[in-house]
Amino acid sequence: MEHLCEIIKIAEKVSEQDGSDWNEDTSIMMDLELSSMEFFSFIAEIEVVFGIRLKPREVNRLETLGDISRVVSEKTMK
User: Fold this and answer.
1) What's residue 65's pLDDT?
2) Closest CA to 40 of 10, 71, 76
3) 30-55 burial, b for 16+ CB within 10 Å, e for fewer?
4) Cα–Cα distance measured from residue 19 to residue 22, given in angstroms and rounded to the nearest whole number
5) Does residue 18 come out as left (phi exceeding 0), alpha (psi in the -120 to 50 range) or beta?
6) DSSP 3-69
7) Among 15, 7, 18, which residue's Cα sits nearest to residue 33?
8) What is the pLDDT at residue 77?
9) What is the mean pLDDT of residues 43-63?
């Protein structure tokens, strides 16, 4: 989970919560309690920070912070 720490920092910023107990199994919607606007801000920030683009079908499959970390790792290795 090479990018997980940076993803957690972004999630803390967007959600305005302390993510000290978040990990790869943290649910994006349930644990972060993001509104739909916050969710899309979170995804947009991930794209900017890591210089990637996420397709809508990829975004639809993201359930945990670990899922995001894996997708970011795959896309940044290309």
Assistant:
1) 97
2) 10
3) ebbebeeeebebbbebbeeebeeebe
4) 5
5) beta
6) THHHHHHHHHHHHTS--TT--TT-BTTTTT---HHHHHHHHHHHHHHHT----HHHHHT--BHHHHH
7) 15
8) 87
9) 96
Both structure tokens of 74: 């795959």
CA 74 vs. chain centroid, Å, equals 14
Question: Which of 16, 5, 77, 73 lies closest to 41, judged by CA?
Answer: 16
Retrieve residue 44's tokens: 């947009």
d(CA 36, CA 70): 22
Instruction: Identify the residue whose tokens are 């919560």.
Output: 17
Phi and psi at 64, nearest 5°, equal: -130, 165
